Amino acid sequence: MIKRKFMYAFILLSLSIVLVVNYYSSLESLWMLILIPAVTTVILCPTWKAAITVGFSSFILMVITEFVFHRVQPSFRDAVHLMITGAVEWIIFMTASFFQIRTAKMIAELGNLALTDPLTKIYNRRYLDWNLEKSSLFPNKEQSMTLILFDIDYFKAINDTFGHNAGDMVLKKVCRVVKEIIRESDIFVRTGGEEFLIFLQDCSLEQGIKLAERIRKTVEETDFVYKDKRIYVTISVGVSKYSKEKDLKEFTEKADQALYQAKETGRNKVVVI
Q1: Which spans are transmembrane here (predicted)?
Q2: Residue 162: inside a domain
Protein backbone atom coordinates (compact mmCIF):
# COMPACT_ATOMS: atom_id res chain seq x y z
CA MET A 1 0.00 0.00 0.00
CA ILE A 2 2.83 2.41 0.91
CA LYS A 3 4.61 1.57 -2.35
CA ARG A 4 1.48 2.31 -4.39
CA LYS A 5 0.98 5.64 -2.60
CA PHE A 6 4.59 6.54 -3.37
CA MET A 7 4.08 5.69 -7.05
CA TYR A 8 0.89 7.78 -7.22
CA ALA A 9 2.76 10.72 -5.70
CA PHE A 10 5.65 10.20 -8.14
CA ILE A 11 3.26 10.20 -11.12
CA LEU A 12 1.61 13.46 -10.04
CA LEU A 13 4.95 15.13 -9.27
CA SER A 14 6.65 14.07 -12.52
CA LEU A 15 3.59 15.05 -14.58
CA SER A 16 3.52 18.49 -12.93
CA ILE A 17 7.23 18.98 -13.69
CA VAL A 18 6.71 17.94 -17.33
CA LEU A 19 3.84 20.43 -17.75
CA VAL A 20 5.78 23.30 -16.17
CA VAL A 21 8.93 22.59 -18.19
CA ASN A 22 7.04 22.41 -21.49
CA TYR A 23 4.89 25.45 -20.71
CA TYR A 24 7.94 27.66 -20.36
CA SER A 25 10.09 25.92 -22.98
CA SER A 26 9.78 26.05 -26.75
CA LEU A 27 11.75 22.83 -27.28
CA GLU A 28 9.21 20.25 -28.50
CA SER A 29 11.44 17.26 -27.77
CA LEU A 30 11.09 17.91 -24.03
CA TRP A 31 7.63 16.39 -24.30
CA MET A 32 9.40 13.02 -24.36
CA LEU A 33 9.65 13.48 -20.58
CA ILE A 34 5.94 12.68 -20.35
CA LEU A 35 6.97 9.06 -20.86
CA ILE A 36 8.11 9.00 -17.22
CA PRO A 37 4.66 9.44 -15.58
CA ALA A 38 2.95 7.56 -18.44
CA VAL A 39 5.06 4.42 -18.18
CA THR A 40 4.92 4.55 -14.36
CA THR A 41 1.11 4.55 -14.60
CA VAL A 42 1.18 1.41 -16.73
CA ILE A 43 3.57 -0.25 -14.27
CA LEU A 44 1.02 0.52 -11.56
CA CYS A 45 -1.93 -0.67 -13.67
CA PRO A 46 -0.63 -3.06 -16.38
CA THR A 47 -3.69 -3.31 -18.65
CA TRP A 48 -4.29 -2.31 -22.27
CA LYS A 49 -7.24 -0.17 -21.21
CA ALA A 50 -4.98 1.85 -18.92
CA ALA A 51 -2.21 2.05 -21.54
CA ILE A 52 -4.49 3.36 -24.32
CA THR A 53 -6.19 5.82 -21.95
CA VAL A 54 -2.86 7.16 -20.70
CA GLY A 55 -1.42 7.32 -24.23
CA PHE A 56 -4.32 9.35 -25.65
CA SER A 57 -4.49 11.54 -22.54
CA SER A 58 -0.78 12.36 -22.80
CA PHE A 59 -1.12 13.29 -26.48
CA ILE A 60 -4.19 15.48 -25.85
CA LEU A 61 -2.48 17.15 -22.88
CA MET A 62 0.54 17.92 -25.06
CA VAL A 63 -1.60 19.44 -27.83
CA ILE A 64 -3.72 21.53 -25.43
CA THR A 65 -0.66 22.85 -23.62
CA GLU A 66 1.12 23.82 -26.84
CA PHE A 67 -1.79 25.24 -28.83
CA VAL A 68 -4.09 26.64 -26.12
CA PHE A 69 -2.17 27.54 -22.97
CA HIS A 70 1.34 28.12 -24.31
CA ARG A 71 2.55 31.71 -24.00
CA VAL A 72 3.94 31.75 -27.53
CA GLN A 73 1.88 30.15 -30.31
CA PRO A 74 3.95 27.57 -32.22
CA SER A 75 4.66 28.06 -35.92
CA PHE A 76 3.77 25.51 -38.60
CA ARG A 77 7.31 24.15 -38.35
CA ASP A 78 6.98 23.83 -34.58
CA ALA A 79 3.64 22.08 -35.02
CA VAL A 80 5.23 19.52 -37.35
CA HIS A 81 8.04 18.92 -34.87
CA LEU A 82 5.45 18.54 -32.12
CA MET A 83 3.51 15.95 -34.14
CA ILE A 84 6.71 13.99 -34.85
CA THR A 85 7.63 14.10 -31.16
CA GLY A 86 4.14 12.90 -30.26
CA ALA A 87 4.34 10.02 -32.75
CA VAL A 88 7.76 8.92 -31.48
CA GLU A 89 6.57 9.22 -27.88
CA TRP A 90 3.46 7.14 -28.72
CA ILE A 91 5.55 4.36 -30.34
CA ILE A 92 7.99 4.21 -27.41
CA PHE A 93 5.17 4.29 -24.87
CA MET A 94 3.11 1.53 -26.53
CA THR A 95 6.22 -0.64 -26.92
CA ALA A 96 7.08 -0.21 -23.24
CA SER A 97 3.43 -0.89 -22.32
CA PHE A 98 3.40 -4.09 -24.37
CA PHE A 99 6.39 -5.54 -22.54
CA GLN A 100 5.14 -4.38 -19.13
CA ILE A 101 1.65 -5.85 -19.65
CA ARG A 102 3.05 -9.12 -20.97
CA THR A 103 5.48 -9.38 -18.04
CA ALA A 104 2.73 -8.65 -15.49
CA LYS A 105 0.50 -11.29 -17.13
CA MET A 106 3.28 -13.90 -17.03
CA ILE A 107 3.98 -13.16 -13.36
CA ALA A 108 0.26 -13.49 -12.54
CA GLU A 109 0.03 -16.79 -14.43
CA LEU A 110 3.11 -18.16 -12.65
CA GLY A 111 1.61 -17.11 -9.33
CA ASN A 112 -1.64 -18.86 -10.17
CA LEU A 113 0.22 -22.00 -11.21
CA ALA A 114 2.10 -22.04 -7.93
CA LEU A 115 -1.11 -21.79 -5.90
CA THR A 116 -3.40 -23.91 -8.10
CA ASP A 117 -3.72 -27.67 -8.39
CA PRO A 118 -2.89 -28.52 -12.03
CA LEU A 119 -5.38 -31.42 -12.23
CA THR A 120 -8.52 -29.98 -10.66
CA LYS A 121 -7.78 -26.26 -11.27
CA ILE A 122 -8.71 -25.31 -7.70
CA TYR A 123 -6.42 -23.95 -4.96
CA ASN A 124 -3.72 -26.26 -3.62
CA ARG A 125 -2.15 -26.88 -0.20
CA ARG A 126 0.49 -24.21 -0.81
CA TYR A 127 -2.26 -21.60 -1.12
CA LEU A 128 -3.80 -22.75 2.16
CA ASP A 129 -0.51 -22.84 4.10
CA TRP A 130 0.53 -19.45 2.74
CA ASN A 131 -2.73 -17.81 3.83
CA LEU A 132 -2.81 -19.55 7.20
CA GLU A 133 0.73 -18.36 7.84
CA LYS A 134 -0.25 -14.78 6.98
CA SER A 135 -3.60 -15.13 8.78
CA SER A 136 -5.17 -13.48 5.74
CA LEU A 137 -7.56 -16.19 4.63
CA PHE A 138 -10.43 -14.17 6.04
CA PRO A 139 -10.01 -10.41 6.48
CA ASN A 140 -13.09 -10.17 8.70
CA LYS A 141 -12.91 -12.70 11.50
CA GLU A 142 -15.97 -11.19 13.20
CA GLN A 143 -18.19 -12.89 10.63
CA SER A 144 -19.42 -16.44 11.20
CA MET A 145 -17.29 -18.99 9.34
CA THR A 146 -17.79 -22.68 8.70
CA LEU A 147 -15.32 -25.23 7.40
CA ILE A 148 -16.15 -28.30 5.32
CA LEU A 149 -13.49 -30.98 5.01
CA PHE A 150 -14.18 -34.04 2.86
CA ASP A 151 -12.45 -36.86 1.06
CA ILE A 152 -13.47 -39.43 -1.53
CA ASP A 153 -14.34 -42.80 -0.02
CA TYR A 154 -12.17 -45.77 -1.00
CA PHE A 155 -10.28 -43.70 -3.56
CA LYS A 156 -7.31 -46.11 -3.54
CA ALA A 157 -9.67 -48.92 -4.52
CA ILE A 158 -10.93 -46.82 -7.44
CA ASN A 159 -7.37 -46.35 -8.66
CA ASP A 160 -6.51 -50.02 -8.16
CA THR A 161 -9.67 -51.26 -9.90
CA PHE A 162 -10.11 -48.80 -12.77
CA GLY A 163 -6.65 -47.21 -13.10
CA HIS A 164 -5.18 -43.82 -12.27
CA ASN A 165 -6.78 -42.14 -15.29
CA ALA A 166 -10.16 -43.12 -13.88
CA GLY A 167 -9.08 -41.71 -10.52
CA ASP A 168 -8.13 -38.43 -12.16
CA MET A 169 -11.52 -38.29 -13.88
CA VAL A 170 -13.26 -38.80 -10.53
CA LEU A 171 -11.22 -36.05 -8.87
CA LYS A 172 -11.97 -33.56 -11.64
CA LYS A 173 -15.67 -34.39 -11.78
CA VAL A 174 -16.10 -34.18 -8.01
CA CYS A 175 -14.54 -30.72 -8.14
CA ARG A 176 -16.89 -29.64 -10.93
CA VAL A 177 -19.87 -30.87 -8.93
CA VAL A 178 -18.75 -28.99 -5.80
CA LYS A 179 -17.97 -25.78 -7.69
CA GLU A 180 -21.51 -25.74 -9.08
CA ILE A 181 -22.90 -25.84 -5.53
CA ILE A 182 -20.68 -23.48 -3.53
CA ARG A 183 -20.59 -19.69 -3.82
CA GLU A 184 -17.92 -17.72 -5.66
CA SER A 185 -16.80 -16.27 -2.33
CA ASP A 186 -16.19 -19.75 -0.85
CA ILE A 187 -12.59 -20.97 -0.89
CA PHE A 188 -12.17 -24.47 -2.33
CA VAL A 189 -8.82 -26.20 -1.78
CA ARG A 190 -7.37 -29.60 -2.64
CA THR A 191 -5.30 -30.38 0.44
CA GLY A 192 -4.09 -33.84 -0.52
CA GLY A 193 -4.62 -36.72 -2.91
CA GLU A 194 -8.37 -37.16 -2.46
CA GLU A 195 -8.95 -34.70 0.39
CA PHE A 196 -10.59 -31.31 -0.06
CA LEU A 197 -11.43 -28.31 2.08
CA ILE A 198 -14.03 -25.55 1.70
CA PHE A 199 -13.93 -22.33 3.73
CA LEU A 200 -17.36 -20.71 3.99
CA GLN A 201 -17.18 -17.08 5.05
CA ASP A 202 -20.28 -15.39 6.49
CA CYS A 203 -21.92 -18.79 6.87
CA SER A 204 -23.54 -20.18 10.02
CA LEU A 205 -22.97 -23.75 11.17
CA GLU A 206 -26.56 -24.66 10.23
CA GLN A 207 -26.08 -23.33 6.69
CA GLY A 208 -22.75 -25.13 6.44
CA ILE A 209 -24.31 -28.45 7.48
CA LYS A 210 -27.05 -28.09 4.85
CA LEU A 211 -24.46 -27.28 2.18
CA ALA A 212 -22.27 -30.22 3.21
CA GLU A 213 -25.22 -32.60 3.04
CA ARG A 214 -26.19 -31.23 -0.37
CA ILE A 215 -22.64 -31.79 -1.66
CA ARG A 216 -22.55 -35.33 -0.23
CA LYS A 217 -25.89 -36.26 -1.75
CA THR A 218 -25.10 -34.69 -5.15
CA VAL A 219 -21.80 -36.57 -5.42
CA GLU A 220 -23.52 -39.83 -4.51
CA GLU A 221 -26.18 -39.28 -7.20
CA THR A 222 -23.72 -38.21 -9.91
CA ASP A 223 -22.83 -40.69 -12.65
CA PHE A 224 -19.09 -41.36 -12.85
CA VAL A 225 -18.40 -43.36 -16.00
CA TYR A 226 -14.96 -44.35 -17.30
CA LYS A 227 -14.67 -46.44 -20.48
CA ASP A 228 -18.33 -47.48 -20.20
CA LYS A 229 -17.83 -48.62 -16.61
CA ARG A 230 -19.78 -46.87 -13.88
CA ILE A 231 -17.82 -45.98 -10.76
CA TYR A 232 -19.76 -45.58 -7.53
CA VAL A 233 -18.39 -42.52 -5.74
CA THR A 234 -19.24 -41.19 -2.29
CA ILE A 235 -17.59 -38.77 0.11
CA SER A 236 -17.17 -38.48 3.87
CA VAL A 237 -17.55 -34.99 5.29
CA GLY A 238 -16.48 -33.19 8.45
CA VAL A 239 -17.93 -29.81 9.41
CA SER A 240 -16.84 -27.34 12.08
CA LYS A 241 -17.67 -23.77 13.05
CA TYR A 242 -15.01 -21.11 13.55
CA SER A 243 -14.71 -19.60 17.00
CA LYS A 244 -13.02 -16.22 17.54
CA GLU A 245 -11.21 -17.69 20.54
CA LYS A 246 -9.39 -20.19 18.30
CA ASP A 247 -6.92 -19.69 15.49
CA LEU A 248 -7.46 -21.06 11.99
CA LYS A 249 -5.19 -24.07 12.59
CA GLU A 250 -7.40 -25.23 15.45
CA PHE A 251 -10.36 -24.57 13.16
CA THR A 252 -9.04 -26.99 10.53
CA GLU A 253 -8.00 -29.60 13.13
CA LYS A 254 -11.55 -29.63 14.47
CA ALA A 255 -12.97 -30.32 11.00
CA ASP A 256 -10.34 -33.03 10.52
CA GLN A 257 -11.57 -34.78 13.68
CA ALA A 258 -15.13 -34.66 12.33
CA LEU A 259 -13.98 -36.14 9.00
CA TYR A 260 -12.15 -38.92 10.83
CA GLN A 261 -15.36 -39.79 12.71
CA ALA A 262 -17.33 -39.84 9.45
CA LYS A 263 -14.87 -42.32 7.94
CA GLU A 264 -14.71 -44.48 11.06
CA THR A 265 -18.50 -44.74 11.44
CA GLY A 266 -19.42 -45.95 7.97
CA ARG A 267 -18.40 -43.23 5.45
CA ASN A 268 -20.72 -41.42 3.02
CA LYS A 269 -22.00 -39.18 5.81
CA VAL A 270 -21.64 -35.73 7.36
CA VAL A 271 -20.29 -35.38 10.91
CA VAL A 272 -20.27 -32.09 12.81
CA ILE A 273 -17.99 -31.10 15.69
Answers
A1: 7-24, 54-73, 79-99
A2: yes
